């Protein structure tokens, strides 16, 4: 990434949103507040709202990266918090996290975290990254009648949604389908991607020493895809494929594949901005190497040479 940015091949991504109403969400066959679930693009198409480009590296890695202190509780007018239980927990915990990491409540004023839009506050705390002027350290006050004041018209306003029922510490029944989306993901992958998934599962589970845990994990995979489970069981040397693990909600048997979930199917047919590795050794044909480098460069990529010795 450093080489790409330095050479002007800036990495970039489309910034997209999936927008839907609460009524539409109630019609989905999964709970949108379940953080383990995704919303298929075929169900709710992506709406492009911008582009994100990395066009420079940090001037000081510690100041601009290690001291980043983002917090999901910091939002702008126009949006509000959902009842996602994972989000609700992080709204509470992230400020404590940043206080622990950086030792001060002024982390929101550090150069890499502060707001792009000007925001005036009279709050003054220890370990300042700014240099406040004047005597005012609180609001409201009588010493600066023209100073910053909270505004109910221009400030943040909570979305006036209606809530009903009791607040309970329980997991909704709509969270109980643990396998349908896992099956959807697996059947949406190309054959090479499925091979990678199998290899990764075999690699990771081979490090598990307790045979019962290996069998239990493969039993979970049976609920996802029997072919996947059989290949992983064979890779682990299990004598047979274990029975499917008990599940409250069986996975949907024949989901319609989602091409948007496959990296291969979504990849653009280009090597522009990429690095192409070239293994060379003594006796390499210089003409072939030069032709390869010229072709890779013409396609907008960079040729990286891998050799047994460093070049002079």
Describe this structure in words.
This protein has 312 residues and is mainly α. The protein folds into 3 domains: 108 residues, Catalase HpII,  Chain A, domain 1 (Beta Barrel), CATH 2.40.180.10; 91 residues, Catalase, four-helical domain (Hemocyanin, N-terminal domain, Up-down Bundle); 32 residues, no CATH class. It is built from 10 helices and 4 strands, in the order H-E-H-E-H-H-H-H-H-H-H-E-H-E. The strands form 2 sheets. A two-stranded antiparallel ribbon has the order 1-2. Strands 3-4 form a two-stranded parallel sheet. The protein is extended and about 80 Å long. The model has no long low-confidence stretch (mean pLDDT 88).
Estimated radius of gyration: 27 Å
Span of the ends, CA to CA: 25 Å
What percentage of amino acids are in beta strands?
5-15%
Give the strand order of the largest sheet, numbering strands 1, 2, ... along the chain: 1-2
* Helix/strand order, N-terminal first: HEHEHHHHHHHEHE
Biggest pleated sheet: 2 strands, antiparallel
Question: Number of DSSP strands?
Answer: 4
Helix content: 25-40%
**Shape, per Cα inertia axes:** extended
Number of helices: 10
Structural class assignment: mainly alpha
Quickly name the level 1 CATH class of the largest domain.
Answer: Mainly Beta
CATH topology assignment of the largest domain? Catalase HpII,  Chain A, domain 1
């Amino acid at each position: 990434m450093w080489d790409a940015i330095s050479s002007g091949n800036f990495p970039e991504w489309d910034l997209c949103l999936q927008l839907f109403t609460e009524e539409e969400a109630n019609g989905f066959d999964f709970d949108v507040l379940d953080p383990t679930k995704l919303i298929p693009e075929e169900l709710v198409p992506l709406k492009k709202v911008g582009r994100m480009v990395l066009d420079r590296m940090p001037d000081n890695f510690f100041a601009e990266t290690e001291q980043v202190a983002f917090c999901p509780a910091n939002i702008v007018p126009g949006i509000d918090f959902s009842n996602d239980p994972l989000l609700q927990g992080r709204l509470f915990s992230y400020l404590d996290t940043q206080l622990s990491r950086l030792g001060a409540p002024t982390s929101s004023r550090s150069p890499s975290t502060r707001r792009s839009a000007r925001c005036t506050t009279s709050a003054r705390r220890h370990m300042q990254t700014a240099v406040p002027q004047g005597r005012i350290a609180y609001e409201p006050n009588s010493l600066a009648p023209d100073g910053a004041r909270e505004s109910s018209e221009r400030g943040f306003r909570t979305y006036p949604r209606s809530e009903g029922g009791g607040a309970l510490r329980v997991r909704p029944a709509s969270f109980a389908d643990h396998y349908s989306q896992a099956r959807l993901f697996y059947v949406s992958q190309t054959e090479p991607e499925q091979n990678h998934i199998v290899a990764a599962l075999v690699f990771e589970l081979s490090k598990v020493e307790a045979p019962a845990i290996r069998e239990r994990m493969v039993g979970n995979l049976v609920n996802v895809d029997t072919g996947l489970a059989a290949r992983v069981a064979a890779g682990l040397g299990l004598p047979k494929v274990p029975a499917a693990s008990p599940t409250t909600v069986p996975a949907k048997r024949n989901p319609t594949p989602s091409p948007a979930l496959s990296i291969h199917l979504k990849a653009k047919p280009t090597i522009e901005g990429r690095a192409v590795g070239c293994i060379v050794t003594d006796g390499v044909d210089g003409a072939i190497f030069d032709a390869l480098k010229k072709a890779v460069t013409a396609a907008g990529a960079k040729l990286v040479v891998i050799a047994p010795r460093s070049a002079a």
